[in-house]
## 1
Amino acid sequence: MPVASHASKRWIGALRSPLGITAAVLLVAVLVLAVVAPLIWQGRADAVQSAEILQGPSSAHPVGTDLLGRDIFARVLVATRLSVGLALLATAIGVTTGLLLGTAPVLLGRRAGRWIGALINIAVAFPALLLALFFAVIFGVGAKGAVLAIGFATAPGFARLTQTMTATVSSRDFIAAARVAGIGRMRILARHVLPNIAEPLVVSATMAAGTALLSFASLSFLGLGVQAPSYDWGRLLGEGLAQIYVHPAGALAAGIAVVLAAMAFNLSGEAVARAIGLRSTHAGKRAETATDHQIAQSEPEPDASDQPLLAVQNLQVSFPTASGEVTPVRGVSLTVRKGEAIGIVGESGSGKSLTALAIAQLIERPGQVRADRLDFLGADLREGVEQSKNELRRLLGTSLSMVFQDPMTSLNPTQRVGRQLAEVVREHQGADRRTAWRRAVDRLSAVRIPGAERRARQLPHEFSGGMRQRAMIGMGVMANPKLIIADEPTTALDVTVQRQVLQLLANIRAAEDVGLLFISHDVTVVGQVCDRVLVMYAGRVVEDLPTEALLHDARHPYTRALVAAVPDMTTDRDRPLAVIPGRPPDPHDLPTGCPYAPRCPLASDQCRQEDPALTTYAAGRRVACWHADLAPAAVPDNRTASDETNGLVQGDPVASENTDDQIAAPLGGERP
Amino acid sequence: MRELTFEDVTVRFGSRRLGTVAVDGVNLVVPAGQVVGLVGESGSGKSTLARAAVGLAPLTAGRILLDGRPVQRDKLQMIFQDPYSALDPRMSIGDSIAEPMPRKMPGRRAEVARLLELVGLAADRAGARPDELSGGQRQRVALARALAGRPEVIVADEITSALDVSIQGAVLNVVKDLQRRMRLTMLFISHNLAVVRYVSDIVAVMRQGRIVEYGPVEQVLTDPRHEYTRELLEAVPRPGVPLGN
């Protein structure tokens, strides 16, 4: 099982780290000592030697003797069992109670769950040690009382953690699916909820054991815990403290033992947490696979006389991972001129969003952006080029704006919308508060938010999804930008709202002559908004063509397949939809040759060995395919005759039975 | 083959005074063996209606009937929107699919294999974990799990909206093919009119908790009667067609 081996590798890796080794050694030492120490040193620890009372460290007694002349070192070692045992017992009580309380809402249903939730909330509000003292008084002074006290003091925190995580897991669809399937509450808890929250619970239980140990020592030290003649570290600490001016080593020994044991538990918890957190490591692939494919694009950009708004050449974005560097964007070149709208389409993972982020200088370390050219309004944006950082920041802040997919996460939920807009001009243009506010209201009405004056005073959650996206665009045009980068701006929106947002972008572009870089997975939407479309696949541009050609005259088989896969209002309902077989390549493991070859109906040996470069074949049209001339025939589109504009549809689209996990079967049928 | 009927179904969240009415007196029939596509904008109550059908949202008023009788849980199954949250990450896909089956049913493994093949996945992938699968493959597993309960009615809530267009087609093909072959009754919810048009026989348009239009798919989409349906149709993106203002 690959998963199992992956998991075990993760644990071995965690064990090998300095933290893991320290934690494991300490924990094993403490546990072994707890078992063994009383068997070996019990006699020595209890031997009263009236001749050797309160002696300092010597070769016979490494840390001296106590009031009765007993060897303190032996007593500290022997006390390990009681101290650790009681702490674990208390933790067990706390964890069990916490688990029962925390999972009760799942088992008992909504109403009873609410009461228990309230109970937990109240219990959490009490400081744990105070609670322990309170319980100690109730249960009586002694080991039993202390165990129950610390156990119940641990429970509320644990219950709260369990309750929160259970609620998170319970809101996921697979729980709903299990309920629909008629699975009982107990089985849902055991099969679906507990396994999914077990790891963090184990971590906090381990940490809780460390805390319980410290609490127990505190209680015993105060005389509320273990009573004579039994002794644990807390009591030894208390006894030692009385003699601390005579010989400090006696008190220190117990103190060090408490610290070491608590550390053993806490470090183990930490190590387990790290091991779990190491999820994202990608196993087994080497770095060269990625770098092998970075063929620099020799194709020169068709140069225009006027300076482009944005000029990008051979842009690469790479990230270091545990298995070496991956390069999800591999040599993208594009230009955007004033007032031009360029669309980038591709499947998820094609590198389209990373390209946008790289242009907007939003790739954060350890991600790396390299390019032969990255000019925006004549300024070189590349890293390492000598220039004033502040100036660059101002240039980007005022001339480039970015609109993201999810408007809810891009607006600050605690600030009024108008103020967030105003901040843009206050920050970059030094406008005073009143001017900035007026501009914000003006921009909000420009993006057609009714009652802009009133709306500007509202918080983001009072806006609907479409209105929020419009407010985001409003924020984008606060400072007269020259280029708007929109990354899937309408994907989260309904069709009616989508249309409004698209219209808004088109209007702004027309009115203010702004360039637009529009990123989407939806060819239809891109076709509506843009003049030119770049199709990306596996981190590279595979086709660059005018929008009019997108539907019927695309030359890359991938572009054609992408267009054919979208059902529209004229799709034949009695035939299966066209699909693209296989799935996009993993950036860790790109095939040699054309990355689309495994899914392509036209793939030949040449395709599997050589990666085609993006070459110009007509004015303003580029394609990266060895068989571009064959593509229109091999991958027919699915539009009906009424939708045709240039009569390029050929062949009879044959029903395709392909699925997304079969490899390289014909896409939409062959030419008859 | 069963007919699913919603009779004056109302779902209200929160108190009578402050709560919101998500579904407001809906009457809807999903005829046996047919697909009813339910469209509407987000917040229109589509998903709440679906969840009410399978018992995930409590009814405030009204009844949901299967062939005139109150719904038995095991006759209805649901497929969810997000393929990443629909499968338990700790369970193999085979176990997930087997879950709705009776616990002591003989030949569970063979049945899991059959269902995997049915949705176009190799039977030997039963041991795979969800994180080894693509979004489209996960959605097929979710479909297989729904079929494992041998339902007569399937409720599909935005099952392709989280998927790439390239994968959407494959999932829709499987859904449509299985619905035809098994004569399933299906409530298919989507905000994408082109997808609804492709899959459904009948369309119901929902707005603010009410059904505002209902009829055969071709009729509603070519000759809409309600203003809101017209608005929805107009908003469908058509490539190359200018947006207007």
## 2
Amino acid sequence: MTLITFLLICVAGMLLTLLTMPFARLSRLVALGSLAGALAAAVLLNPNDSVTLGEVTLATTWFGGFFLSALAASSLLLCVIGLATGWPERLAPAALATMAGVGVAISSTDPTVALIAAAAATAPAALVASRVRSTPLGTTVGVAELRTLALVVSASVLAAVTILNTNWNSDDPTFVLALAFLVVAAAVAVRSGAVPFHVPAALLSRSGEGLGLVLSLVWIPTGFGLIALSWNASIFGVPGDWLDRAVVVVQMVAIATLILGAVGAMLHDEIEEIVVYSIVQDTGFILLALTARSEDAAQPARLWLLAFVIAKSALVAWAATASWAFESSNLGELRGWLRRAPILGIALVVIVAATLGWPGSPVFEARGTLVGLGLPDPLHFIGTAAILLSLAYYARLLAVGLLTPTETVRRAGGDWPHWPHLARETDESASPDGVAVLANLAELGDETSASDDDEGVPHRRPKLYLRHRLTAAWRLNRPLQTSLLVLATATIAAIVAFGGFGASDASQSGITLDDAAAPPPNPSGLDNGGQPTDTPSAEPTAAPTLQLAPSALPLASPSPSESPSATPTATATATTGN
Amino acid sequence: MLDAAVFAAVAVVLGGVVAASARDGRVVVLGLMLAAVAASLVASPLPGSLAVTARILGAMLAAYLLWAAAGSGSINSAGSAIGLVAEAAVAVAAFAVGLAMRPVDPLAGPVEAQAAGLSLIALAIVPLAGRDVFRMGVGVTLLTLGSSLLVGAWSGPTPPLEQLAMAALLVGIAGATSLLIPSVEAVEVAADYVVESTPEPVVAPLPVAPVPVAPRPVAPLPVAPRPVAVPTKSDAAERAGTPRVAAVQAVAAPKPMPAETPKPIQPILPIEPERRPRPMTAEPEADDWLAWEAPAPEPAQPVTTHSARRAPVKRLNEFEKPPPKKSTRSRPHLGGKP
């Protein structure tokens, strides 16, 4: 029932936010309330909850609840930050729709339902991308979005029919598996903007999307990637020449993404573009998790996905806050930003720690494991190179912040705390709102005192009470508040990346589809060695959904209190009775 | 006896052909709705009433979203890129192939579903290859419908939740398409942007005689070099690289002339590069009358430069008596209001 509550909150919140969009304040209130409700429902998800609709069961797992909580928390924090930096009016409904789709996808026991829901969860990216429909970029972005959607739909359906144990009339059934693997990997790569397909992501970064970037480049690809990884070890784990060739292609894309993404981040001067290329670079690890095709890669991949979602959300929030606070996103004009905004600097350092970690930390080990399993031995240096390149562009951001401040940075107040003083009102420009705050100071005073200036001209001088000063101080310190929110987001990301909040234990368990996509004993006429059998089964086997008995669901969705199994496939195989 | 799935499959293909080839956006939407509604019925046995209702409602909602976008006037679709007949031929051919092929043996669903699915996927290729956002959305919808039919054919009956998810996916695609269709202003701006950046001439080039670029054999002149219209330094810097400058410089350049065949001097015809069509630029020159219509008179601009702010000075000839100068002394202040 908790899952249904979560889904209802998401769908109703999305509809209400869209319907109230003409009324700005009401729409914001509804959006924030819906996101808060979704976060609460996600946190309260019962790991053993299940509901049967027709022949399909929706069952929750601990990791599924954790992942949905991470999505909801990131959405809520970014929207709250957006209250100051510029309200992303379409981000909240798009995020709610995405969470609903991902919620169905990761809790369904039917692969087809899961994949179609995952494909539907990618459609809300258009809601964010449609912001540029009135610009010359509109056609290009629209075409790119729809082509990506077409690819995701094709990949989902092809993967669904592949893992449904159909009897392919082919001499080498691994060809079909390789095709499905390639299409799924292409969908993940295109949706996340991996390097050969990074142009739409770059266009989005130039379109002034701001906070909306995180939906298209982080949340949606992560949700789809989580679904794609579910049957990675089981279905695509069989050996075969075609599969090996397909894996090599994906490995090349992953390597190019890891290296060229970081190079792109180093070469660009707009911080939105730097952030986008940073995200693009780190999606290479999702592709590496796909190429690993091993059960050993499941737990690191899940932990990486959790850390990736929150850390990159924090990075996008950092970029939006810095651009807003200094009224510029050009790195040349942002020289000295760290001196004026030390809290933002601390937040960036925490984000770097959450993304890269250090030797021995869970996130560092997860990245290392993915590189080790996803690439052949001679290419393991790519992992070290990716870390060094990431450090290079992060260090560049910090180094630029330590230089002598430019006039743009000096004019902005940064995130130091400010207190409104009328005597200093001429030099107050602590924030973009500072001028407006000081202009409104006179309106805040209930009583005004009349006095004469030197020329004897009478004027009204505002007389401020403490509550007025507090109100003014609240408005004057918007950058401080926003920076603290970014720091909070980064701290949550770091805690999760280092296994806190139970992230390490949650990543031991998978999603419901992991069990449903467990390999049947004789998939596609292949024996364990991947060789076609002499007599492939002539009759189609029943759908996997029918093989999974509802009574097996609690075992298929282990909670931490129970025995978290690193190999849920074995459990599912045992319970399905195959 | 024909099964209901056969009629539904034919309706799916018919709707797909209409959606892929019609010019009017609303007809396209009607074709899509027909295909989406009929696609839910290409099954054997027929799905439950709840599932069919969900699919029909989803199809109607998706059609409504596209209908609303089509009614906004921003859709200027040119129809199919290959024409109605070609689209129909493609659909029929793909349908026939779908009836004949057996990628999965035995099929878990009706073979008509496979045929209709292949037909819709074939119809989706041309719209997906274009750059019209509306038609691309139509292509994605056809692709999704075709894929769902293939799943039904290869994997058997679909559960109700899958039908519901498919309906949500169709609504999502239609909503995304309706959101991503560029506004009228964006289309115009994009068109202007394309024209400005196109290096090709906008108008057809007029037949102009080829300009003699090679130096002509001219007898050595006993007089000073003619004042050929050599561009000034600033002009040369501005128009460097143009054919005109190259031609003029080639003519004006001192070349060793053969002296053994003196001929009467031929007048050098002025080169008229203005008659040569040039690519349209964002701000065409005033003499580029061949490729540019007379612009509308601009409103008077406020004088901003210091020199232009002065009053126009009337030129006097030497016989004209200058007007008396005004006294520069200020009037004595007589009191009262200044």
